[in-house]
Amino acid sequence: xxxxxxxxxxAGGAPVPKLLCDTRALAALDPxxxxxxxxxxxxxxxxxxxxxHVPPGGRIDTHTEPDLDVLVLVVAGDATLQAGxxxxxxxxxxxxxxxxxxxxxxxxxxxxxxxxxxxxxxPGLQIRHQDR
Length: 132
What we know:
Blueprint: H1 23-27, E1 35-39, E2 47-54, E3 59-64, E4 70-83, E5 86-91, E6 95-98, E7 103-120
């Protein structure tokens, strides 16, 4: 489902660019499963990215991202982004910025929507000792 290819490391173990997936092929799955169709999972990465599919009429409930700005690229279909009283159509090929601290929800259109999200990688959970 991910379509990932593994490339051999360059001499000295330096990372090399590589094709990760074909977003058009994943978005064209019929029927595409709801949720993440692909996730960036490369070791040592500084970014997180996901290809997400929401079926026709499906919804992502209202939420606020307090820490991270998110870029959203619509690769197939359409949706409506609601941010407070404002409604923004998300259309195929549109690149949208969701600033951190913004509250939003999303409703997929009649064809559903598939979109790529990209944001700074979240730090892993850390166990800390509490001073007594």
